[in-house]
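Annotated sample (chain length 302).
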Amino acid sequence: MSHEHEELNASPALRARILVEALPYIRNFRGKRVLIKYGGSAMLNEDLKKDFAEDIALLGFIGVKPIIVHGGGPQIGELLKKIGKESRFVKGLRVTDQETMDVVEMVLVARVNKDVVSLINFYGGKAVGLSGRDGKLIRAKKAKPARLADVDEDLGLVGEVERINPGVISALEDRGFIPVVAPVGAGPQEKPYNINADTAAGALAAALEAEKFILLTDVAGVIDNQNELVSSLTEEQAEQMIKNGAISGGMIPKVRSCLNAIRGGVPKAHIIDGRVSHALLLEILTDEGIGTEIVRDKAPGL
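Output written by the structure step:
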């Protein structure tokens, strides 16, 4: 029997328990913002794309305010390859010259963003797409790579967030729209900067005072040196795992973005496996949750 048939044939009592389990979470998150970084397989696999769009539409229907920041690395890499340009990364961050920046903006804003918006709308949501350059949402400056991923190399037109204009998001939410943001920021003279999607998402989560920050990835969560999933981390523990190499490569900007979010006031950040069907609903509306939760260090004496 398929997983789908098992769900359909579940007893009425079991289905009722599942719905009741979600009730306190619906009550807790109703009217509150949840910032979601959308990327990885969840953006590429057709079934997972459908699950994600359904999850976002459902969250909107029950009164949660989802805000989405999406990536698009594979799509950018695909187009760069077609034009004969090599992609180069330093600790998970794309080195971005002017030609690469042109491709990044074209792919993220003109293609990926519109695809995400259209899919959410197809499943009943009210999504609107924008980039960080729209309405001066994300003001950017040239990144200091050491702050993003502990590297010294110049990354070109890679930016870091200088400030956020929350009014753009609030205006959309007031009309019932779900914002979908492409992580391109506006620098001096409105020059575009490529901002790592994880970094942009963490900054937005803090500036928008989100109740929860969730990153969808292609791994179960943060994995320790014994290859075990770490279900919960404090700030100090996360910093130590970066220092000793247990957290490395592309996971560094993900964890850094979580740390920036919670230091900016977000109560909890989560790195979850976007390959799991309906991962968002499992994280937000169930007792167990999934993946790795990152929380603030406790104050001394508590």
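Annotation: The chain has eleven helices and 14 strands.
Annotation: The first strand starts at residue 33 and ends at 38.
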